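Check this.
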Amino acid sequence: MSALSDQLVTFAILAYLVAMISHAVEYALGDARRRTAAAAPARELVGAGVGATGEVEPPAADDAPPVRDRVAERGRLAGRIAVAVTALAAALHLGALVTRGVAADRMPWGNMYEFVLTVTWIGVAAWLAVLVKRPGLRQLGLFLTLVQVLLLAFAELKLYTEVVPLVPALNSYWFIIHVSTIVFSSGIFLLGVVPAVAFLMRNGYEQGRRSFPYTLAKRLPAAAALERLTFGLHAFSFPIFTFAVIAGAIWAEAAWGRAWGWDPKETWAFISWVVYAGYLHARATPSVRRNVATWIAVLGFLTVLMNLFGVNFFFTGLHSYAGI
C-alpha cells in the first residue's frame, strides 16, 4: 500500500502538470482569438445585385466559420480537458492519501509530507466544488494547478518520509479533532490565495497597468468577482481555523500541562490568526481599499507557509513531528 501511494502521488503530479498545460493552451488560444479578431479586416457586406450579364447574383456564402470562432472553440475544449484532468488528478491524489492511511493504519497526517498531501488535496477538492457552482472562474485553474505541481513536487522530493506508526504524543482523539480542522482550514486558505493574487493582477490590469505581471491577468475573470471569491473563502475558513487553534490549546493542556507555551508552531499559528483576522477586519472597513485588504490575505498565507515549512526546517519545539 505504501508503494502504491507513492506511485499515485507521482501520477497525480503528472496529471496536475497536464491540466496546467491545458489551461495554458486555453489562455494562449484566447489571446490568439483576440489578436485574430483585431487583425482581420471588417467583413464587407455584399447584397444581391445585377451582374455584367444582367443576371441577378446571389450574395456570397461563407464556406467555413471564421478563424477566430474555430480558435475559440479549441480554447474552450482545452479548458474542458483541463478541468477533467484536474478531477482525475484529484482522484489519484485522494487514492494516494487513502492508501497511505491504510499502510500506516492511521489518519495520514502524522508528518510534514502527509500534511502537505492532505492540504493540497483539500485545496483542489474545494476548487472543483467552486467550479461546479461558478464555471466562469475556470481560468483560475492555471494558477491553482501550478501551485499543486510545485507543492506536491516539493513534498515528493524534499519531504518524503517512510510510513511509520504515529508517535506516542499524537495518540489521542484530539489528534483527529485538532489536525483535521487545521488541515481543512489550511487547504481553504491555499485555495483562497489563488483568487487573491489573481485579483491583485487583474485589478492592476483594469486600472491601465500593462507591464508584467499585470498583462498576465487579461484572460482572468473580472476583479470584482475574484475579490468576492477571495473574501468568501477566507470568511468560511477563518472560524474553522480559530476552532483548530483553540482545540490545539486544549490538547496541549491535556498533554503537556499548559495550554500555551510560545512553542514556535503555536506562535506562528497565532500570527496567522492575527493576520487573517486583520484581513477580515480590513475587508469589512469601507475606508480600506480592497487591494490593500487583499494584500493582507496574501501575507496571511505566507505566515501559513512559514508555519508549515519554516518552523519545521529552522526551529525545534514540542511540535517537531515533521519526519525530515
